[in-house]
């Protein structure tokens, strides 16, 4: 019988973890926070896909999950480590922009802020947007202290816009009206 690899290593029991390349860092480091928040976002997408959104939406979400794995692996790799890993690039950003533009043409023009919500899928897409914004803040914090791929920051910024637009589009597909924020009255 083949020996099974254990999921636990016990090497992180003291509050440190290994980056890609072997360097050990505190689990509270900016780098761990950045790619950990990207991982959280990826998990939220998994929840959204479990709700079985429209097939084309599900396809795009699965693609973004793969892109987030590339983003996370890039964030987990210090610039000093010379190894080829998948990274998000300009083509990923352009595709997000094209999709935002296509969905926007099918949506009413925004004249007011809208409240996050709608269908189960739409509501969770709004949640994904907020976690993408938190990931962006974590990546900015990391970039303030260490060298990162500059496209990582652009990608996550565009992705939060993508989630916002997709949430609106998914709500429209599901027949949910947007609720306008009334402000002070």
TrEMBL record:
Residue ranges of domain Cobalamin adenosyltransferase-like in the record:
7-170
Entry EC number(s): 2.5.1.17
GO MF annotation, one: corrinoid adenosyltransferase activity
Q: Name one GO biological process term.
A: cobalamin biosynthetic process
Keyword Ion transport among UniProt keywords = no
According to UniProt, this protein's pathway is:
Cofactor biosynthesis; adenosylcobalamin biosynthesis; adenosylcobalamin from cob(II)yrinate a,c-diamide: step 2/7
Transmembrane annotation, as ranges: none
Question: Which InterPro entries does the UniProt entry name for this protein?
Answer: CblAdoTrfase-like, CblAdoTrfase-like_sf, PduO-typ
Keywords attached to this entry: ATP-binding, Cobalamin biosynthesis, Nucleotide-binding, Transferase
| Catalyzed reactions | 2 cob(II)alamin + reduced [electron-transfer flavoprotein] + 2 ATP = 2 adenosylcob(III)alamin + 2 triphosphate + oxidized [electron-transfer flavoprotein] + 3 H(+); 2 cob(II)yrinate a,c diamide + reduced [electron-transfer flavoprotein] + 2 ATP = 2 adenosylcob(III)yrinate a,c-diamide + 2 triphosphate + oxidized [electron-transfer flavoprotein] + 3 H(+)
**Keyword Chloroplast applies:** no
Q: Which NCBIfam families match?
A: PduO_Nterm
Complexes and interactors: Homotrimer.
Q: What family, per the record? A: Belongs to the Cob(I)alamin adenosyltransferase family.
Kindly provide the name given to this protein in its UniProt entry. Corrinoid adenosyltransferase
The scientific name of the source species is Candidatus Curtissbacteria bacterium RIFCSPHIGHO2_01_FULL_41_11
